[in-house]
Design brief:
Blueprint (H helix, E strand, L loop, with lengths): L1 H23 L14 E11 L12 E12 L6 E15 L2 E6 L2 E6 L8 E18 L9 E20 L4 E5 L7 E11 L2 E8 L9 E2 L2 E2 L3 E11 L1
Antiparallel strand pairs: 1-2, 1-13, 2-3, 3-6, 4-5, 6-7, 7-8, 7-9, 9-10, 10-13, 11-12
Length: 232
């Protein structure tokens, strides 16, 4: 009888312990109101388009973009969304356009084929306001999915610097009034999970129509190609 009583007490204690263990197991909740890809970081190669015949690009011209986008899904499954945000971008371009400044007057010429220049570079810094339409195959349970994001971007030039170094001179020019301070761009990012290809096309020329070389307007703009990375 004592053995039966002890066995009975054992099963009661075991059942109570099992129920307590089940009540302590973690409950994994699915976030049905999730948002995607709210921070971005991109690296690009910048190629000049619409160059005057006298101008060519040299060395590796690069760029970087980073910022925040507010993801706003527009359908129940959250596979479509719009996003707006604020960012920063930096563009560097090596070319043989020679810029000089004499008595506050800026003029443009070319380095030519024979020169002793060690640096001829244009740096530009922008504040960006992107607006994009998003499609993705995302689900609440996984952050690995296909995406296509396309949009437009308004970029405001906050600082510019042209640098020239050769055997005879070393100077910089900033605040060039011939540059278009407001830039409109269109872009697209597409890929899977971490790796996303990125293309950014400038709709606005770098220089105003009044800036000319040999009587030809400096209507240069860029197409930037690279990779874009997204973070929640």
């Amino acid at each position: 009888m004592k053995f039966v009583l002890n066995l009975f007490l054992f099963f009661i204690m075991f059942n109570g312990f099992s129920q307590e263990s089940k009540s302590l197991s973690p409950i994994i909740a699915v976030d049905s109101l999730y948002r995607e890809d709210q921070f971005y970081l991109g690296f690009t190669y910048n190629s000049l388009l619409n160059k005057p015949d006298a101008i060519s690009q040299n060395k590796f011209s690069s760029g970087i973009e980073l910022g925040f986008l507010r993801d706003m899904p527009i359908n129940k499954s959250r596979t479509f969304a719009i996003a707006a945000g604020l960012g920063f971008s930096y563009d560097r371009c090596f070319h043989d356009l020679l810029i000089t400044k004499t008595d506050q007057v800026i003029s443009y010429s070319t380095l030519g084929s024979a020169n002793n220049t060690s640096k001829n570079r244009q740096d530009q810094y922008y504040v960006d306001v992107p607006l994009e339409f998003r499609w993705r195959t995302s689900k609440p349970e996984s952050h690995e999915f296909w995406r296509i994001y396309a949009g437009v971007k308004l970029s405001y030039l906050i600082h510019d610097k042209y640098s020239h170094i050769d055997n005879d001179s070393n100077y910089h020019i900033s605040g060039n009034s011939d540059l278009n301070q407001l830039q409109f761009r269109t872009y697209m990012a597409f890929g899977y999970n971490t790796w996303n290809f990125y293309v950014n096309y400038g709709l606005t020329p770098f220089f105003k129509s009044s800036a000319k070389i040999n009587g030809e307007a400096l209507g240069m703009r860029t197409i930037n190609l690279g990779l874009m990375f997204y973070i929640l």
